[in-house]
Amino acid sequence: LFGLTFQTLDFLLSKLDVTTSSVPFPLIAFLFYASSLKSRVFNPLNNQRPDRSKAMKEGGSNGFRDRVMPSWTPPGVVFPIMWVLIIGPIRAYSSALVVSSTGSFFSVATMAFMLHLTCGDIWNTINNTEKRYGAAVVGIIGVVLSAANAASQYYQVDPLAGKLLGGTLLWLVTAGALITDTWRLNPVEGTGERVPLYPVKGEAETKFMWFSSDVDASAGN
Questions:
Q1: pLDDT digits over 145-156, tens only?
Q2: pLDDT digits (tens, 9 = 90+) for 37-93
Q3: Longest pairwise C-alpha distance within the chain
Q4: φ and ψ at 182, to 5 degrees?
Q5: Residue 4: burial class (beta carbons within 10 Å; 0-12, 13-18, 19+)
Q6: Which residues are CB-contacts of 188 (< 8 A; sequence separation ≥ 6)?
Q7: How big is the CA angle at 217 (ends 211 and 219), to the nearest 5 degrees?
Q8: Could you give the CA distance from residue 21 to residue 198 in angstroms, rounded to a whole number?
Q9: What backbone torsions phi and psi does residue 61 show, to the nearest 5 degrees?
């Protein structure tokens, strides 16, 4: 769907005889900023993020404080600051640099970035919604590797864009350490054994936002 959207944008610009260089840079950046924060709109799975206000009122939310967390877990306010004010803008600016350099929204580089966002959305389903603590450890590795690939593709187009996007790996690797430690602290109830590092039948139920009316309406926020 991301690819189709970008190809449609390129098609419309070509029909209007408009180049990406004529499109305001902030507008391109905003498109990728929105894609970064709301990529789950294109994903049929339930990618519900942690609800900070719910966590503060009730002591926990899907993916945050609803399980035993490591003692070094950052305060809840750190997460939205990082994603909304730091990671999001970095992704947006670096992506706009790539589009400006390639002259196209649809490219190998931008699709590598969209793959990274997709991996992140699937991981959110595994970790936050389905609470598959073991599979989440393996999943976060995929998220990190997809980010590294996207940064490499960006670097080939625009070195500054690649360096900027590569900088987000620091946060993702930190998140990976947090997820791994969380897995260690949450063994199987009753047995004390570690949760397997692969999906287990019956461990959780996969729900689809697009095809289910039972999913919490707040999951789309």
A1: 999 999 999 999
A2: 887 776 666 666 555 555 455 555 555 567 889 999 988 889 889 999 999 999 999
A3: 65
A4: -65, -40
A5: exposed
A6: 194, 195
A7: 85
A8: 46
A9: -150, 160
